[in-house]
Amino acid sequence: MFSSFTPPRQVTIGGAAAFVGTTPRAIRHYHQIGLLPEPERGSDDRRRYGYDEMIRLLWIRRMADAGIALDDIRDAFAGGITDADDDVARILDRLEGSLVARQSELEQQRTAVQRMRAQGSRLGLLSDVVSDRLTDLPEGALRQDDLDTLLVTERIFGGLGASVQASRFIALATHPELREESDRVDAAEAALDDTVAVDDPRVAEVAAERHAFEAALRTVIEDSGLAQADDDRFDAWDKSHPLPDDEDGAGATCGSTSLTEAVRMMPYDFSRARLRCMELVLELDALDVAPPAER
């Protein structure tokens, strides 16, 4: 009765996609990520899919429909499969292990998102060691620019460096007169744009103002006990993170990026006049700590 029916030995990618219930584009993606070996092309330069490939596609489709990530499916298939029941069990065991690990990762992500929502997006982006120092400040005392600066500092110098820098913003948040002076000096520095020559007298004037402000800020930080608390943090860190005998900290890294590279990668649109102003501030700072005979 069915002698006229001859099933194909192989089908094109379009036929495979139609049977499985997916798209040719999805199957090509499976090839690209190593989930499905790419079959040989026929004489017409088109991929041809046989029975084994169709079974693999059905497995992929069924597992993907169950919400299993393609990367997890690929890892489960890494040892190869046959039609034996123990192979099915082995693959499902791998998938379950992968899903358990993924669940733990998702719980960590969920905890981080909840923390960000509770603390506010910008404050929540900082690590606990930094944000915990700022949570007791009155609402609105910190500015978005303050938190953005701490985020950059943490990327370059780590949580300890940003935690110490937080003392600066705590002092500004709790001393309105300092915040007002800080705004004034910031505006003066911003005015040193590309229209200002490097040797313009205003450059040295603003440098002197910045130097005086930073000295006043340091005094407040010291008198309030914040400086001593910062020293204690450094001491505690050094005790819990001793350097090996052959290291002096010069090769410090931030993630996979060295400290020097991280600093150079952060773009700051400073004019030559403003850069010169920063240099003058450093020179004034050096004079403060130099012996009287060297001044």
Describe the structure.
- The chain is mostly helical.
- Helices cover 65% and strands 1% of the residues.
Question: What is shown here, in short?
Answer:
It is built from 13 helices and 2 strands.
Shape: elongated
**Oligomeric category:** single chain
Could you report the average pLDDT, rounded to the nearest whole number?
Answer: 82
Helix proportion range? 55-70%
Structure classification? mainly alpha
Main β sheet profile: 2 strands, antiparallel
* CA(first)-CA(last) distance: 109 Å
Strand order of the largest sheet: 1-2
Quick one: how many beta strands? 2
Number of helices: 13
Question: How do the helices and strands follow one another from N- to C-terminus?
Answer: HHHHHHHHHHHEEHH
Would you identify the regions where 5 or more consecutive residues have pLDDT less than 50? Answer: none
Radius of gyration: 31 Å
Tell me what portion of residues adopts beta-strand conformation: under 5%
